[in-house]
Each structure stands twice: as structure tokens, then as C-alpha cells.
Amino acid sequence: MTAIVQFENVGLRYGLDSETLSDVSFTLHGGGFYFLTGASGAGKTSLLKLLYLAQRPNRGVIRLFGEDVVTLPRKRLPGFRRRIGVVFQDFRLVPHLSAYDNIALPLRVAGMEESEVDAPVSEMLNWVGLGDRGQARPATLSGGEQQRVAIARAVIARPEILVADEPTGNVDSDMASRLLTLFEALNRLGTTIVVATHDLPLMGQVTGAQMMRLDKGRLADPTGALRYPPRPAGGGG
Amino acid sequence: MSGRTDRRAAAAARHRLLPEGRVAGPMPWIIAIMMFLTVLAAAAGLGLGAAVRSMSADLAGRATVQIVEADAEARERLGARAVQALRGAAGVASVKAVDPAALSDQLRPWLGEDATSGDLPIPALIDVTLTAGEADAKVRHLRRLLSGLSPKIRVEPHAAFLLPLAGLLSALGWLAVGIVLLMALATGAVVVLAARGAHDSHRGTIEVLHLMGATDVQIARLFQRRIALDAMLGSLLGFVVAACVILLLGARLIATGSELLGAVHLPWSGWVVLVVLPVGGALLAMLAARWTVLRSLGRLL
What we know:
The complex is a heterodimer of chains A (237) and B (301). Chain A has helices at 44-51, 77-81, 99-109, 118-127, 143-155, 173-188, 200-204, and strands spanning 3-12, 21-29, 33-38, 59-64, 67-68, 84-87, 161-165, 192-196, 210-215, 218-219. Chain A has 237 residues and is of the alpha/beta class. Chain A has a 6-stranded mixed beta sheet, with helices on both faces. In chain A, strand 7, helix 6 and strand 8 form a beta-alpha-beta unit. In chain A, helix 3 (99-109) runs parallel beside helix 5. The longest helix of chain A has 16 residues, at 173-188. Helices cover 73% and strands 8% of the residues of chain B. Chain B is built from 11 helices and 4 strands, in the order H-H-E-H-E-H-H-E-H-E-H-H-H-H-H. Chain B is rod-shaped. The chains are: A alpha/beta (237), B alpha+beta (301). At the A-B interface, helix 2 and helix 3 of A face helix 1 and helix 8 of B.
């Protein structure tokens, strides 16, 4: 499998605080399914921000799709961002746009002809079970529905990597399982999935997924070897 | 779907990215007030400029010859000789002796009936219109010519006594130009503040678009279009009101019947400049908005 993401000794610091992420090194392969876990404040969201290019590290090398994005000129970053879909922890739906327009955003940003937008958006709305809620504004949708709109928006442009930050944090266990089924379906289509979560039972549901565990800003396994199944409490790996 | 319909649909989708709120905000009204003042200042500058040019052209080519002779008969003889000398002089287009009776009539309000009694030695006056070109040299030539007839003949170029007034009008014109420039700066500053405010209030949407791979120019276009529309609306309103005021003031100036005030008029070329102002204002607003948003986006990764 091709290495699609490579982190080498990556360090991230906010202001003058101590490092949020230290010496983080790992490799993700195209078509893989990865969980990123760790306690609250361990640095999961910060690592994801580096991954979806919302932040640059203070040190180290990050390669996405074979290119060093740390030194990449700023004007080239949009092209890389379009290859990454993001499901934010707080969804970040645009409040004044309908579910339909929210889902269509990545296609419009990519410059797709308007006549070609409708079919994939309608298909995606049906896929996430919101075929009849297309014109609803986010405020009128339930938490689960908003989450599904956020996921549909993240995947509609067929990204090569899907990054999801605590996607099951705001939904019940039934909805969490359904979301995971969605991610697995995408993964089968070839999308690399990276899900940050501290929901250990959820991780157990995905066959073949690998796990990275962050502990106080460092990968629990400094060699970068990813493991599955998760390390049992107090047990060896 | 045809290409045009598709473009319209795409434009409509882009416009939905920022919530509509035109005219609800203060910006169009602020721009309207600033454009109103800018157009008035520009009109004043253009009107005064035209007056100064007209006055300068008028003054530079005219002079008055005074014959300061107490004896009425000698004054009359000297006047006739001066007229004759002037008619043959180089650089003189026309010569006209001022009718002593008309002069007395003009002086009567200040001198009373004495002005017409003949007891007061009132100088004889001759109006001289010079040919086009360098006036100073011609005036010097006339002084030399007439001083040969009598030392009691004086030549007064009109420019000499109306020059301070022309200078004042010119200064006022430049002041108006300065005000227009300041207003343009202030308009730019208002737009920058408005764009920053809009950028801050839509920060969430911008971040989402940014992380989806929208380029800075794509995002800036949303704001520059919105602000340009607001500015166009405000500019148009300000221009229309200012144009009404200018037309009203113009009518009042003409009604005074004053030759001096009548010189302050707005030529057609001036109206063209005024019409360009709202378009320029909207363009300035659009560029300021674009610059502001691009600068703000530049701070993001």
C-alpha cells in the first residue's frame, strides 16, 4: 500500500506553552482505517489539525500524498485541502445554508458546474438518510442529522483522506454504529479514514482498523508501529 | 441546463454563502453621506476652477487706461490722443473710451451729485482689450507708448486688481480637491472597517470554506461583491441628492445676476467627472474590501 501520510518527529507548540505534540512519527497507508485515541487533552485534535492543514508544526516533517506540506507555499495548500474531507467535532455547518447547500459546498469550491452538482448532492442526501430534509437549515436538524450532513459534506468530493474528530461524541450508540458503517462503506471505496475517538467499544467494531494512542502529546508507541486490537488495560501490546 | 442558466445558478449559489443583509447595515448610508459631500466638494472645486480659468482669461487680456488730468479740456484732448495712439499700437485688439456720463452715473452712489457737477476731477477711462498671448509684455509696451504722450496717463492691467480674488477662488478650488481626496481616503477606511467587521462576523463560514480548499481569491470575491453592491447603492443615493443640491444652487447663483458669482458654473465636463465619482467610489470600496479580506485571509495558514 502507498504511504499517504507521513509524520516524522513532528512537534507542535501553541505560543510559549510546552509542546502539545512531541516527536510524533507515524505513517498511514492509502485505503487504511485508523483510529486515533487518547484521553481528553492528549493532543488528538491538534494532530488532526496538522493532518487537515489547519495548522503547521513547529518542527518535524509532514508529507501528504508524497509532498512535504510543512514547506509547501501557502498558495498550493488549497489543492491539498480539496483532497481531504473533514468531519469537525462541532460539525461547523454553515448556519444560513440549507443541508443541500452545505453538502454541495466542496463541489462548488472545487468549481464544479452547477448542472453537475445536483445529482451527487441528492444521492448523498439519500445515502445519509436525509433525502427529504435537503432544504432544512442546520438549526432545524437534530444533532444526529447535523452530523450526517457534516459527514455527507466531508465525503461528497470523494476525498482521498477522511478525517473525523470525535464523530460519535454527540450521538447515541445506535447512531454511532450507523456512522461507523458509513465510514466503513467509504473505506471500502478506497478512502483512507482517520477517526479520533476515545470510544474503545466503537473501535472494536471495525475489522482491520489500526489504532494510534496519544498520551500527553506523544504517541504511546514511539516507534510508530500501529496496533490492533487496542492494548488491553494494563496489558502488553 | 444552458451555459447562461448554469452560470446564473452558480452565481446564486455563491451569493447564498454570505447571508443577505443589504441596506440593513449602516454602510450604504455612510457611503451615501460621504458621496454626497464628495460630489458637493468636487462640484465646488470644478465650478471654482472654471470661474478662475474664465476670470484669468478675461483679466489677462484687459486693461484700463486712466487719464488723471484735473483740467477737463486737457483731459479730453489727452484722452483722444491716447485712444488714437492705442488704436495703432501692437498687441491691442480693441479700444473703447468710457463715456464720462456713464462713469459719473456709476460713481453717483458714492460721490453724490458732485460726481456729475464737473467740479470733481474724475479721470477719463479707456477700456483696452489686448490680443491673445503674453499680456505683461503688451502692458509694458503700452505704458512706454503712453508715457511718451503724458506722464498723467496710467495703464492698469485688470489682472493686477482682480488677481487676489482669482487667487482666493483658486485656493478654494484646491481646498475642494483636498476635501475630495480626504473623503476618498475616509471612504476607503470605512470600507476597510466594514470588510473587517463582515470578515469577523462570517469567520466560521470563512474557516469552513478555507479548510475545504477555497482559495483566498474565491473567498475575497464573496465580500468584494457584497461591499461593492452596498457601496454602489450608497454612492448612487449620495450622488442623486448632491446633484439636486448642485442644480438648486446653480439656479440661485444665476438668479443673483452677479457677473462674479455667475462665473462659478459647472461645465458639462464637470458633470462627467461628477458622474464618474459614484462609480469610482464603488470601485474603491470593492478594491478596499478585497485588499482587507485578502490580508485577513493571509494570516490563516
